[in-house]
Design goal:
The chain is mostly helical and 223 residues long. It is built from 8 helices and 2 strands, in the order βαααααααβα. 63% of the residues lie in helices and 4% in strands.
Length: 223
């Protein structure tokens, strides 16, 4: 889909500003959500969860209308491409992709779904003592307890996915000598000069979609 191999390359904007901001804000918010839960700062825990949910909703929308390499259609590959990529993993030379590689694309989708489940179940959760999610009143106690259990154990799944994600970054850095973090900071990768440049979606569109996502979450939690 976007495998690149030419020698003549130029720095090219691959990860747009909305994708980069989403990535690092999500990292910070998930960390803060964990900390606020452990410290029992439950009001802040809820606020952090709302922000995470708004970010995830935005990223899902951006995955359909955003810049070239932000779109799901750019990094969701078929079985043949995935198996071909897996065969290349032991090599010391990284198989070049402009956007996410096939395994990275699967990782992105799994993390998005996991975080979406985490934030959504938190809206219905309770601690049987003082705190209830903003949508607790709309479900039965039994369903809320089930959502609470899912919320608890899904975080363990999220930790595993995050660990695999970090391990993949380190594997690429030390085994394949490719830094995957730097492009997520400055947005740039070296791509063939003769290739068509990726299309970059409007920042105004990103702001509009994030505003819509934030408003949707606010309306949901204040019902």
């Amino acid at each position: 889909m976007n495998d690149t191999s030419k020698n003549d390359t130029l720095p090219t904007l691959v990860w747009d500003l909305p994708v980069r901001l989403f990535h690092w804000l999500l990292v910070l918010l998930i960390g803060f959500s964990w900390l606020s839960g452990e410290m029992e700062w439950m009001d802040w825990h809820f606020y952090s969860g709302y922000a995470v949910l708004a970010l995830i909703l935005f990223r899902i929308l951006w995955g359909f209308v955003g810049s070239t390499h932000a779109r799901f259609g750019d990094f969701l590959y078929g079985p043949a491409a995935l198996f071909d990529y897996l065969r290349s993993l032991p090599s010391r030379t990284a198989k070049k992709f402009a956007g996410h590689n096939p395994l990275g694309g699967i990782s992105v989708v799994l993390i998005l779904l996991c975080v979406l489940l985490q934030a959504s179940t938190g809206l219905f959760a309770n601690d049987d003592v003082l705190y209830e999610g903003p949508l607790y009143k709309h479900v039965s106690k039994e369903l809320s307890d089930f959502m609470t259990t899912v919320h608890k154990w899904n975080f363990e799944v999220l930790l595993v996915l995050a660990g695999v994600h970090i391990a993949a970054i380190l594997y690429y850095l030390f085994w394949k000598s490719e830094n995957l973090v730097k492009p997520m900071l400055n947005g740039l990768k070296r791509l063939p000069a003769a290739g068509a440049p990726p299309k970059t979606a409007s920042l105004w569109l990103a702001l509009l979609l994030f505003g819509f996502s934030a408003a949707a979450v606010w309306l949901a939690v204040t019902r």
